[in-house]
Amino acid sequence: MKIAVCIKRVPDSETRVKIAADGKSLDEAGVKFILNPYDEFAVEEALRRKEQAGAGEVVVIALGPAAAQETIRTALAMGADRGILLQADRLPVDGFEAAKALAAELKNAGFDLILFGKMAIDDSNHQVGPMVAELLDLPCVTTVAHLEIASGKGVAEREIEGGVEVVEFPLPAVLTTDKGLNEPRYPALKGIMAAKKKPLDVKPTALGAGGLEIVALTPPPERPAGKIVGEGAAAVPELVRLLREEAKVL
Amino acid sequence: MSDVLAVLEQRDGVVRKVSHEVVTGARRLADALGGSVDALLLAAGAARGADLLGGFGADKVITLIHAAFGSYAPEGYARVIAERVQTAAGRYGAVVFAASATGKDLAPRVAARLGRPLAQDVTDVGAESGAVTVVRPVYAGKALLQLKIVGSPALLSLRPNVFTPVQRPKAGAQESVAGNGPAGRVVVKQIKAADAGTLDVAEAPIIVSGGRGLKEPANFKVLEQLAAAFGGRAAVGASRAVVDAGWRPHADQVGQTGKTVSPTLYVAVGISGAIQHLAGMRTSKVIVAINKDKDAPIFKVADYGIVGDLFEIVPKLAEEIRKLHG
Ligand SMILES: Cc1cc2nc3c(=O)[nH]c(=O)nc-3n(C[C@H](O)[C@H](O)[C@H](O)COP(=O)(O)OP(=O)(O)OC[C@H]3O[C@@H](n4cnc5c(N)ncnc54)[C@H](O)[C@@H]3O)c2cc1C
Ligand SMILES: Nc1ncnc2c1ncn2[C@@H]1O[C@H](COP(=O)(O)O)[C@@H](O)[C@H]1O
Question: What three-state secondary structure class fits A48?
Fold first, then answer.
């Protein structure tokens, strides 16, 4: 099994969002960056598939600034075999530009599986995986929460509103991973040491500007200060009155 | 030049409710662009509820019929939608999807086929000198990104529950067309339905969510009773803590690694209000918090709060709600 996993460097989910002076981007000062949590499921799944097959290679690919080498090292420490950094200093918000750059790298490289997270937690674009699949003309299943693969065919389960879709697809294929697929391992000390010596190719990458122009990045509207209606069950009638008469939601 | 194509969904041959919102959003965009709305359904036969779509603002409802389109066929759907947009030769200024499980899967495929960018999960739409503008939450709802979509068509998906359907006294024209070509390599074999009658948290207008404060899985019965008191309009949600503990299914999880919801009413019960939970529900219209800790962060985003023991408060609340509906 030769498996590629596309991984993104993103701000930690605890990040306090401060908007930069340009009014259009995140002020990155003091922000801690991590491997996108959904991509951890993808890395874990790749490692398990390779372990099961008893042979193969797991290649992690990140498109991003030089600092994304750290993100790649995290995945190498989990157990991936080698990394590729498509180095670009600024990523456009247009996910299609990222998809094109990743597809160019993945094309004709002979992967049986190409894995993505279902979305990056910074831009929540929710699109790069299936776009790459279309560009490479590969079958694709998104938001996979359960997966079985045998003799060149896969069966995946994905959550839909009010149910679960059971989907069949042939390999090679592109999959995007959802929570529930597996429990990602933590890199062990041995893995962290080994990761330092694993190959990491850096390739300068030029990206188009894309078709999405940022007008502004703003804080979400403040929720008007709420009120504590009261304490205990005695406050319930007043709560119901407010929901009916003030909020008008009942 | 500036018509809008609304891509709709059906399940088991019935138009889904989220599609009413898509037509409503498409209408709003078409009015801003000065065009009309074509609504597109893919189905195995005539879909029930297609006749109602004119009332939400569709000028024309086109049903593409193909034996293999009864349930979602990712590649076949993407192909025929992209072909339709291409054949319309520039007539569509925008293509609007639902940011549902299906829409979020389908829209990027269509976008890549058309070589166009995509704005997923938008919460507002508009137009500025002919260009489509959108607003979408980023950084887990901690910021809003305002975007101008350069070029045409603009592709976007609408966050469920945000575009409240507006009824108009109008019937759209109906048209049926035979779909053709292969359905694709990816095949939906089966849909394992959740228990009949349970609403999905992503689409419920009312959500009653429980956290670790419930103490044990069996206690979720009090939340189910509260949800039932709302008469079929409420779903039961959960925090990650209780999903990770195996008390509730992952499908019910609200938050950054769960679902993003925007119901009319969100009742957080025994949930502390961690930033990753807030990420999933802060755009709810009205938030009620019930927590015994008056300093719990959930009270900072709640419109109304009651401090106290949920095991006393929730049954009383269910009783009062039942009285209203009784
Ligand atoms: C990367 C990442 C992603 C995450 N994604 C999510 C996500 O998608 N969704 C999510 O929810 N969390 C998520 N989390 C976890 C989040 O940080 C919190 O740990 C979690 O939300 C806490 O769940 P809780 O509020 O149920 O539990 P707790 O924080 O333990 O809160 C329990 C609350 O119940 C109250 N309580 C206890 N007993 C009673 C009683 N008898 N009556 C009334 N109140 C009572 C307590 O005062 C307390 O406030 C994520 C974390 C990380 C790091
Ligand atoms: N810059 C990037 N480098 C590598 N992978 C990426 C990048 N951006 C997105 N991805 C992959 O695409 C998935 C979906 O991202 P998005 O469409 O941006 O929400 C992520 O979980 C990653 O697997």
Answer: helix
